Amino acid sequence: MNATIKTILLTVLTLSVFAVALVELSGVSRTALFNKFTGEEDHSHGVSPEDQAKRDEEVKNMPKTHLEVVETKFDFGNMKEGDKVRHTWVVKNAGEHPLVISNVQTSCGCTVPAFSKEPVLPGKQGEITLEFNSAGKAGEVNKNALIIANADNAPFSIGFTAVVEKK
User: Fold this and answer.
1) Out of 3.30.420.10, 3.40.50.1240, 3.40.50.970, 2.60.40.10, which CATH number does the structure's domain 49-165 have?
2) Beta-bridge partner residues of 156
């Protein structure tokens, strides 16, 4: 190889490493980049990690209440790889203070949570929905999500199971 080709290849490699480092340092996740370029929906609700941490801290310092979920596990049964399914859990405030859910943390990008940011008054109910995208998840699946709230029993775990059949 001549020197010009070696220089070009070294430059391309250096720029690639620089781009990867820049993405890592900026905090942009691989999932967010994938979703941006594939047209997938952004489920971050426009909340930065700093704002989320601030909200989590505020909720942690609120008066405690008690969270109840009748059905903590749901079984989607059998499905084909690539199917998207969702289930809604009913969350009851069984305490004396308003229940505020600050976050629902999932273990991977295949499960997307949705929940109301409005307080759930004592004796009332709210909802948390988890949507599961089974693409690339063939086999038995067992996923959990943690409800972060101002409850004496938080973080509270909910989850689902499924058997994903390869296409």
Assistant:
1) 2.60.40.10
2) 147
164 burial level (CB within 10 Å; 0-12, 13-18, 19+):
buried
Domain residue spans in the chain? 3-38, 49-165
pTM reported for the whole predicted model? 0.70
Q: Burial letters for 60-99: b for 16+ Cβ neighbours within 10 Å, e otherwise?
A: eebebbbbbbeeeebebeebeeebeeeeebebbbebebbb
Sheet holding 73-80, edge to edge: 73-80, 156-165, 139-149, 101-106
Q: What is the pLDDT of residues 102-136, one digit of tens each?
A: 999 998 889 999 998 899 999 999 999 999 999 99
Tell me the C-alpha distance between 93 and 114, whole Å: 18
How many CB atoms are closer than 10 A to CB 102?
21
